[in-house]
Every structure is written in structure tokens, then in C-alpha cells.
Amino acid sequence: MKKDLFVCTDIDTLLPWILADLEERNEIFGINRDQFFLPSPDDPFRMTRYGSLLETPLGVASGPHTQLAQNIVTAWLTGSRYIELKTVQVLDELDVTKPCIDMTDEGYNCEWSQELKLEESFNEYLNGFILLYILRDRLGFSGDGPGFIFNMSAGYELKGIHSPSMQRFFDRMEDCSTELAEKIELIAPIYPRIRELDIPSSISNSLTISTMHGCPPDEIEKIARYFIEDRGYHTTIKLNPTLLGPERLRDILNTRFKYPIDVPDLAFEHDLKYPDAVKLIRSLLDTARSKGVAFNLKLTNTLETTNIDQSLPKTEAMCYMSGRALHPISINLAARLQEEFEGTLDLSFCAGIDTFNVFDTLACGLAPITVCSDLLKPGGYARMKQYTQTLLTEMKAAGARSIDQLVCDRAGSEDRFIAALHNLNNYAAAVIESGRYGKDLFPWRNVKIKRPLPRFDCAAAPCVASCAASQDVPRYMEYMAQGEFDNGLATILATNPLPNLLGMACEHPCEEKCTRINYDSPLPIRAIKRFLAQNGNKGIQLTPGKSNGKKVAVIGAGPSGLSAAFYLILEGFGVDIYEAKDVAGGRAASALSSAGLDLETAGLKKDIDRILGLGVQLHTGVPVTQEKFAALRESHDFVYIACGASGEIGRTAQGVIAHPDFVPEGKIEVDVKTLQSSLPCVLAGGDVLGRSSLDTAIGHGRRAAKSIVSACGFSSQVAIAPPDERKPDLQRWYSQNGTRIDGATLKISGAGKRVNSDGNTLSKEEAMAEAARCLQCDLICNICVTVCPNRANVVLQADPITYPVQTVRADGSIETSERIALTQACQVINIPDFCNQCGNCKTFCPTSSAPYFAKSHVHLSAASLEAHGEGFFMAEKGVMQIMAGGKRGTLTDNGETFVYEDAEIRLQLAKDSLKASDVELKQAVKKKKLRRVAEGAVLFGLLENRYPFCK
User: Fold this and answer.
1) Across 522-672, where does the E strand assignment appear?
2) Element (H, E) at 626
3) Percentage of the chain with pLDDT > 70?
4) Burial of 100: CB neighbours in 10 Å, binned 0-12, 13-18, 19+
5) Whole-number Å distance between alpha carbons of 331 and 329
6) Judging by beta carbons within 10 Å of its beta carbon (0-12, 13-18, 19+), is residue 644 exposed, middle or buried?
7) Which of 96, 279, 440, 675 would you call most buried, defined as having the most Cβ atoms within 10 angstroms of its Cβ?
8) Is 899 helix (H, G, I), strand (E, B) or coil?
9) What does the H/E/C string look like for 675-742?
10) Which helix (H) or strand (E) segment is 647 a member of?
11) What's the mean pLDDT in 511-532?
């Protein structure tokens, strides 16, 4: 079964969904009302295009954000007013390679036109058109006219454009009177005021020619003349960045900005050449002038590149680059063309636009400005709202009451053409020198971790998972942001007893997995830890645990040994550390010394003193020999070997083989999970298992202490951190997830650099501001929801619940293997009707999996369920269809219980516990797992009474 195809949802489902979400949840398609753009007649960036008002000069480019009605609605909600509809062509049954989008840093794709048939495309565009008029009315927006424009996009050859199916598409986009009347009758019972709205029957009278790569000049001109002369459309030609020429383009892309991207000679050879483009533009300008329509250019199309290191299927030899790497190229192409035409060209722009360059781009007279790649990153459509805020702030600061005034004032000229050219030339030079577009600014691959993606409760902080000491970064960031330094330090000490050391000398892999990387820049986690270590001691009172009569000998006073000693003394163990050197600190002390730092300056002495102050006995200058080792085993209940490595380290499937010099057997085998060795009551960790990072060594020490506590049959009595009283704050998440912050992050040292030898420390204000940027992604993630242009990933707000994992045996008996507790407030599902498996959610999901694959598939239609052969569908009120492997079952709300039935079995589920009972076997069943049935019951509760899942 092909599972990457859209199943269209008509307007009589979309509209009540919109209205219900707005009324009940104050949102539409996952966009909170606070993220809506609210137009005002006083907005200085309003502009006129083709005789119509645009409430903003912003829009969404032809692409994934304009292929479905709900995409168009979501883009409009956040501020897009120039809607470039996704390109259509006569070949409307494409088999697009999937995944087709890679937006990790600069963007790539291997798809180019609408994945729907022409009839479906028209229907989506008409639905979106009507819904915007309804929403303007429902949200109370005033003003004459709609304030937005739908711009068609078509390609790729004149023969296809002349085909009957394409002609029918254009005819109905010009005049959809019949279809519009039918839609109004369909939805009038849902929204009666639609009969009073003046919705025009013409969806669009403008078109952008998408000629793709390799279209010859004469074909481009024929297509343009057809739309200008025969159709009378305001016509735009989208030009390719290769017009800049191979030498200049490669100098910018490869030499100056160091992108390892191959733009082959073929890309320049088969594209339009600059002299031909100039001739073509002059000719079409004259033609459009004589016909009384507008002719303009759009910069730029994507850049054709070789598909080498991109995360796209290698069956595609070429792919198409977009995003920030394209911005300086396209800006310089714009400057070249405007210089050629003395600033008189009407240029719209789309290339690497973001909230940080949108104002400068607009000041160059480039408008409207459309966006794609930036909206495919975390935050998604909500990023557009920040664009409007940026423009308002910057235009107010410039004293500009209009775009024309902005352009002229910045250049100091009253001639708008001269001013625009002046500003553009300056910006074209500045953008090369700015340092904002180099590849080195994004040295990270992604924030993904090895954790699989669970069906429920998926939020987890990748910074925590990447830390071998499992430090609870989001919690101490929250305390730091609130100025609660003692609680912040206590949270660190709960998993790391050496905060000064790790605040100075950790390799900080957490920063390489900070989810803010995909917004702006990672948090300076190590520097904030150091601030808390230095400023959070006043209210922390640590006392050794009540003696439990057990003694532990720790061999080695390095980070791992000190860590074990700290947690053991708090649990009530007597602890002796034996160190061969004259001072404690181990390899960490040596590293600090080699960096020119003494233990006092680096804070390590402060960490050691805290541990020794609890009653740990440190014995320095005591090398452990075979005889001493034997004596320690006699005098202590447990021994933890945490000295440096000696000899080669071997590894097996079960663990590690270490060779401490003092072990008579010559080697010991160590379980990597418990750190218990093959010698009774002897554990080993840290460098003795192979050279380890500081956080790994510290994590081993805590793990060893935990194993010792468990081996004694004790329960841990230590609670250093305050109770976690954080609550998921959706409103805060909404305000943060679409907002980027530029230039605030202070880089104390590069990620991976072991020692911060410059001694810099954040100020209180800096540390609090940086910590406030933390997204608290262990409480709410929802990244996959924001990056999906089709709104296929949906958040359901949930209350805590548990469900059993059960299996029915051949005799009808039921076995329960575990109960799973769901505690998170946000649960994510996938709607296959909307999902074309583009792969964008997989790119940005912090786990090792893909949400479109791993999440529960909840269908909106029986057709979608049948097409996919898997998932859940609320067929009618109180009845859920469940399919797996094409086999169907039914879960029915029977009042007091759920009843599940399929071809093999019938049973009941208790509504409170979801335990199965009253099993009736219809066929010979050896074993039947009921986990999917229980998950269906969980989803039933989440979907019940929520439109459109339960109508």
C-alpha cells in the first residue's frame, strides 16, 4: 500500500473544525490566538499589488505551505498575505521520492509541484479562499477588500499549459461561480453568515511561471506571452540563481561561506543565461505594458545541486537548495539585475528570508517577500508572526510610515528607484561581509538522540540524554531564570557533585543537542552551571546519611571516585578514598593544570571540600598494590575501582574487560549497566573502563553508588534536589516556539572544548536571560507539530492515565506483563489524510525515529483508513475502527465498558483500568497481543467529543 498520498478533506469538515478549535481551545490548526497576526489600518508595511491591498508585504512561497487548504489558512493566520499557490502542471500523478525535504540547516528538496491532481488542487485552493473570507468575518477584521492575494503558479511547458485539464484549471480559477455557489450551500448551515459575505468568483488573476531548471529562453517567453496576451494575467517569471554565473555564485557559496555544496556545470549550462534573461525581460516588459497588465520577476528559484551529503534518497542524482545559503546569492543577483535596469524592475523575493533579514530586504524595495524554508523549521508558521513584529518595530524606529518612505529615507533620496538601487547595492555588499551566512555558524548535524520515539509521552530533553551524568538541565535552567540559585545548584548536585569542575572543564555535549540550535543558538549550559556553582551555596545544607553499618573503599580520587563517595556518604555508608597521588582530582586536576588553572581558581577544590566535609576520608599518597587491594576487600563491604586505566581495555557484548594492576586475577569483567565486576562486591568505573569524559566518569560514580545501595537491599534515602513543581505551560510554549533570539548567546567556549581556560563567568543578568531561553522540552516538545506544513501532526491535551500491556493465550487466559503510565499533558497523533511523509518531522524530532511513522495514525476518513490499512478511525459516535496489517477490528463504547471485536476475538475492556475480560475466541488463537486495543481505548478518550475526529 502506498501511504504517502493525501486524502483530501472538504470544507464541510475543515470549517467546523476551525470554529470548534477557536471556540474551545483558542487556536486554529495548532496556531494559538496569540500567534495570529491582527491587521491594522495604521500598519506602515501595507502595500498594493495588482491594484489590491496586501495587509503585509509577506507571504508563503509556492511549496508545501500552499498545497492544502489548511496550510493556506495557517499561513494567513500568522501574517502571510501574498499566497503563492503550489505549482500545478499537466502531469498531475507524480510519484515523488520520499523523504523529499531536508531542512537541517540550508534546505534541500527533491519535489517541485503539487502532489494532488488538478481537480483536487483547484478544490483545495477554492476551500482555502472561502475559509479566509469566513475567518476575516469571524475574527472581526475590518477594511475594504480581503487584504490578501492568491497567486497561481504553473509550469513547465507551453504544450502542457494548453492541455484541456490545465485550461479547465485556469478557467475555474478565473471564474468559479458554480463551484463557489455549491460550497456556500454546503456550509451555510455551519456558518449562516456566509450568505452575507461578498466572496468574489475570481480566485486569482495573477500567475508566476515556474519554469524549473533547464527550460529554454524561447519556451519561457512563449509561456509568458500566453499568460500576458491570451489570459491577461499579471505575470511573474521566477528566475534561477544560476543567472549570477558560476564564478560569482561559487565564490559566494563555496569560497566565502564554506558550504561543501556541489553546483555542477550542468546547472549553469541548461539554465537561462544572463544576456538571454535581459533580452527576455525587456521584451516582456513592453508586451505587458501594451496589454495593461503587470510583468515582474521573482528571485529566486531553488539552486540545483548534486545530491551527495544531503539527507535525501540517493536515487535522486540532483536536489534543489534553498534557505540561508541562498540569501546572499539571490540578493547579489537582484543587485545585478536592478543595476542593469537602473532600479526600475518590480522584484519580489524569496531566498533565505528570516526574521533577522526581512527588514533589510524590504528596505531594498523587494516586495512582496515570500518564505518557505524558514517556516519548515521548529516554530513553523508561527515564525511569520515575528516577521510582522520585526517590521513594525524597525519601521517605527526608522520613522517610516510606508515602505516607499522606508526605502527613500534609508537612501536619502526622493527618487524611489534610485533609492531602492542604492539600498540594494549596499545590502548586497553587506550581506557578504556580515558573517551571518557562513556554514561555520551551524556546526551541528542535528539534535537527535538514540532514544526511540514512544507512541505516547514522547517529550524528553536531548540535552539530558546526551549527558552521561544525566544532569537535569531544564530544571536548573528554570531555577536560574527565576533567580533561585540555591535550588538550581541543588538540582545539579542531585546528579553531579562536582559542579565547579564541570562548569569549567566539561566537554558539554549537552550544548550540541540543545533544541534551541534549530531556532537560533544553543544555551551556554556549561557557563550557567558554573554560575550556579559559584553563586548557589547559601541555602544548601547537606548532611551525611545515618550510618547503615556498611563501608566502601574507593580506589582513586578522580571525578568518578569522588562522585561515588559523595552519594555513598549521603546514603549512610562509611567511605574511604585511596589516592596514589598527593592531591585529589585525578586526571581532571591534571587537565586544569595544563590549561594554566590551579584547583582553587577552577573551583575543583571547592567541590572536593564539599565532599570531604561530609565525612569522606581521603587517604593520599597511598598506591594500591595487590596486597592493599586484598586488605581493602577484607576491611570494607564493597570496593569501587575508579583509578586510571592500565593495560588494554577489552569489550564484549555484555560488558568491559579491565586490567587494573592490583587485581591478582589480572583482569575483571564489568557489567556496563550496574558496574558490578566479576569479583564479588567489587565495582569498577571511570577511566578504568577506558578513557572517559568527565560527565561519564561522574555518571559512573553515581551509578556505582546506586548499585551498591541496591546490592545491600536498601532504598535510596537521598533527595538533594527540591521537588519538581514545574507544570507544562502551553501559553509560554506558544510564545517561545515561534520566536528566535539573535545575538544574545554568549559563547564562553566552543562545544567540545574541554577546559574553559579564559575564566569568564556570566553575569547574573546574562545567566538569567540565557536560562530563560530554555524551551523546557522535557515537559512540552511538539516540535513535529510545528514543522509539519500540512498540520498532519496534532497535539491532544491529556490527563494522566495508565493502561495494561496484555496478551490473550489460546485457552482464553489473559496475561498482564506491565502497566504503562502516561503522565504528559501533550500527546501527539498523526493524521495520515494530511501526511505525504515528506520527512520534515523526522529531521527535527529529537528522537531516533519519525513521528509520521511512530505516532498513532488517526484517520479523518474511511478512505484514508482503507488506503493505509493501518490506524484508528472514529467511524461514528462511540465506534472506533482499528486496523493493523489490513485487518479490521471495532472498539465500541458500550456504556459501562468498551467492547472490542475482530475476526479472531471478542472481549470487554474496563473503562477505568482498561483491563480485558470476558474473552470469546472465534478462531484458534495461540497468542493475541492486546496493546493496540488498549492504545485505541486511550485514544478513544482523547478523541471523544473532539472535532473532527469524533463528529
Assistant:
1) 551-555, 574-579, 617-620, 638-641, 650-651, 655-658, 668-671
2) helix 626-635
3) 96
4) buried
5) 6
6) middle
7) 675
8) strand
9) CEECCCCEEECHHHHCCCCHHHHHHHHHHHHHHHHHHCCCCCCCCCCCCCCCCCCHHHHHHHHCCCCC
10) none
11) 94
On the question of pLDDT at 409 being above 60, the answer is yes
- CA dist 546 and 908 (Å) reads 51
Alpha helices in 145-273 (DSSP H): 158-161, 164-174, 177-187, 217-225, 246-250, 265-269
Q: Sign of torsion, CA 91 96 102 106? A: negative
CA 62, distance to chain mean position in Å, is 22
d(CA 382, CA 369): 16
How are beta strands 149-154 and 295-299 bridged, if at all?
A: unpaired
For 880-929, how does the pLDDT look when each residue is reduced to its tens digit (9 = 90+)?
999 998 899 999 999 999 999 999 999 999 999 999 999 999 888 889 99
Q: Helix (H, G, I), strand (E, B), or coil: what is residue 563?
A: helix
Is residue 604 within 8 A of residue 589, CB to CB? The reply is yes
pLDDT higher than 60, residue 749:
no
Instruction: Please name every residue paired with 296 in a beta bridge, in sequence order, or none if there are none.
Output: 236
Burial 322-358 (b: 16+ CB within 10 A, else e): bbbbbbbbbbbbbbbbbeebebebbbbbbbbbbbbbb
Cβ atoms of 4 and 837 within 8 Å: the answer is: yes
Whole-structure pTM over 0.70, yes or no? yes
State the pLDDT at residue 445.
86
Above 50 in pLDDT, residue 543?
Answer: yes
Are 836 and 790 spatial neighbours (Cβ–Cβ below 8 Å)? yes
In 3-state terms, what secondary structure has residue 843?
Answer: helix
H-assigned helices in 636-682: none
Read off the amino acid at residue 123.
N
Interatomic CA distance for residues 400 and 416, integer angstroms: 14
With 60 as the cut, is the pLDDT of residue 720 above it?
yes
Residue appearing with cell numbers 528554570: 478
- Residue 470 grid coordinates: 544525566
pLDDT in tens, 13-69: 999 999 999 999 999 999 999 999 999 999 999 999 999 999 999 999 999 999 999
Q: How far apart are CA 720 and CA 709, in angstroms?
A: 16
CA 222, CA 627: separation in Å to the nearest integer? Answer: 94
Side-chain-facing half-sphere of 367: CA atoms under 13 Å: 28
Interaxial angle between packed helices 274-291 and 217-225, expressed in degrees from 0 to 180 and rounded to the nearest 10? 10
- 250-285 pLDDT, tens digit each: 999 999 999 999 999 999 999 999 999 999 999 999
Alpha carbons 228 and 235: distance in angstroms, whole number: 6
d(CA 266, CA 249): 14
**Phi then psi for 81, rounded to 5 degrees?**
-125, -15
Tell me the residue length of the chain.
951
